[in-house]
Amino acid sequence: MSRYRLCPTPTQRVALLEHCGHARYVWNLALEQWSMWSRDSTPAPGFAEQCRQLTAARLTFGWLRAGSQTVQQQALRDFGQAVRNFYSGTHGRPAWRKAGLHEGFRIVGSQASRIVKLNRKWGGVLVPKVGWVRFRLTRPVPAARSYRVTCDRVGRWHIAFAVIPPPIPAPGTGEVVGVDRGVAVSAALSTGELLSCPGPSAHEHERLKQLQRRLSRCRRGSRRRQRVKAALAKLHARVADRRKDWVEQASTDLARRFDVIRVKDLRVARMTKRPKPKPDPVQPGVHLPNRRRAKAGLNRGILSNGWGLLVRRLQHKAAGRVEKINPAYTSQTCSVCGHRAPENRESQSVFRCVACRYRAHADVNAAVNIAAGRAVSARRETPVRVSPKREPQHATSA
């Protein structure tokens, strides 16, 4: 996706928000129809039937007729594709779209190709029932047949063209690198490099605490609460942009330098779930401590380092060259002698093998094991002693 900053006028912003509201309304209505379907009832209406229902609704409601039929029908197409992706197992269940969080719509067809270059820095795109909207030309516009207009929680408008960029060619040197993702160090390479994702500064941390305290004192529904929430969203958006920029630079550098990139096969979505409550078997209605605050801190550390985004961008830029390795015991195995023991991990950042006394950074040692493809089983392996009266046995390879 090639994304550009959209700069609509105040009047155009109102019209774009109306398009977003109509697309969200149609999507949620189609989701409600699909959610009510069961095996004992009639099948949920398809795209053709939903379009007929949309035409009847536009004749009845003037506020819906004032919007663009192209935007509303495309929302139905997108929902149908989301349902097909859900049944095929490639995506999750379609979710509800909320105001202020999922603001956007998509244009497909001949209208999506109406793009002009105004000058060296600005371009224009024709949005139905809005007119020509300017966007910032930071790079050449690709030839796309569809685009999506979105508005984030800070109020920034973007236009994204649905084009898959070509992958970065391999250097051809045959070099393999292992990448170990962590919380203290965002990414450790088997070459010894330590990459850190830039997070919020000390001033931003203090600003975040002040805004959170102020938000807790605001009355719900007040304008002051809206202003504080907008300031919080602006601060989080600045940190998220910084993290995305780091991921783009790090993934591009790795794709250009190495032929094969090996990473841990981690399920980040499951790792960052909230811990389940533990009911007290003795006292009904009472729950035992489940360390949810500690787990929340770990989840913030994982998400702030961009674990999932880094691997996704590597798979896009180095297509077919990213290998996922079983993460079992990679941080406890010595990369020199292969001895594995929990005592090898002396601390969060120090690895010292109890067998050969090899000392290194813990994340770098794990990255070397990942680069070597040392995926061991979950069963704890013990060295096999050779008896002089029997033939030697072969130990399971680590």
Tell me the layout of helices and strands.
Blueprint: E1 2-7, H1 10-35, H2 47-60, H3 62-65, H4 69-88, E2 103-108, E3 115-117, E4 122-127, E5 131-136, E6 146-151, E7 157-161, E8 176-181, E9 187-189, E10 194-195, H5 202-217, H6 223-257, E11 260-264, H7 268-271, E12 278-279, E13 287-288, H8 292-304, H9 307-317, E14 322-325, E15 350-352, E16 359-361, H10 362-371
Parallel strand pairs: 8-11, 11-14
Antiparallel strand pairs: 1-5, 1-7, 2-6, 3-4, 4-5, 6-7, 8-9, 9-10, 12-13, 15-16
Describe this structure in words.
With 398 residues, the protein is α+β, with helices and mostly antiparallel strands. The chain folds into 2 domains: 2-161, no CATH class; 176-278 and 291-325, no CATH class. 38% of the residues lie in helices and 17% in strands. It is built from 10 helices and 16 strands. It has helices at residues 10-35, 47-60, 62-65, 69-88, 202-217, 223-257, 268-271, 292-304, 307-317, 362-371, and strands at residues 2-7, 103-108, 115-117, 122-127, 131-136, 146-151, 157-161, 176-181, 187-189, 194-195, 260-264, 278-279, 287-288, 322-325, 350-352, 359-361. The two termini are 41 Å apart. Residues 375-398 have low confidence and may be disordered.
